[in-house]
Write a structure and sequence with these properties.
alpha/beta; globular
């Protein structure tokens, strides 16, 4: 049953990608024509995007803009200009549930027929961007954040990442 659900999700994303190369999650339409992935933006939203949790840094050379929650040192990291940068202090990944699935595959690509980056979810477009989930004051409103959660804080107008202990904010 899990495979049918995964196939259905993948087919739905392929259909959306084929026609519009835009995807809206928990909403009816995408905001603007320059958006490849958009999330629920109602003021009551408390759901963010959860980054993949890895044990150490991924092997190989990732694409610039790759985000992870590194469970080996409990930090949210981004890969840019051939180096990994920490976006958070050392947090607490003890609540991270290890993925023991035997599923393999190349992931889902949105925005182009075939992606050049290796990842679970790859967004590639020469003229579209992703709009992060928007949450007002996530440190107050997200009751049980998960390590590696990211969002845009509409109150402080900053990029917010949760490291398992505290929210870290970036302008």
């Amino acid at each position: 049953m899990k495979h049918i659900k995964n196939i259905s999700i993948a087919l739905t994303l392929v259909v959306f990608n084929t026609f519009y190369a835009q995807v809206a999650i928990e909403k009816e339409t995408v905001d603007g024509r320059s958006t490849v992935l958009d999330f629920n933006s109602t003021p009551s939203n408390t759901k963010g995007l959860i980054l993949p949790a890895t044990q150490g840094l991924p092997t190989g050379t990732p694409a610039n803009g790759t985000f992870i929650f590194d469970a080996s040192d409990d930090q949210v990291k981004v890969y840019e200009n051939n180096t990994w940068r920490s976006l958070s202090d050392t947090g607490n990944g003890s609540t991270v549930v290890a993925n023991s699935s035997d599923e393999t595959g190349n992931g889902v690509v949105i925005g182009t027929p075939a992606g050049s980056a290796d990842g679970i979810l790859v967004l590639e477009s020469p003229d579209k961007a992703m709009i992060l989930p928007k949450i007002s004051s996530p440190h107050l409103n997200v009751k049980n954040p998960y390590p590696g959660m990211i969002c845009y804080d509409t109150a402080s107008k900053t990029f917010a990442v949760f490291d398992g202990m505290v929210w870290n904010y970036w302008k």
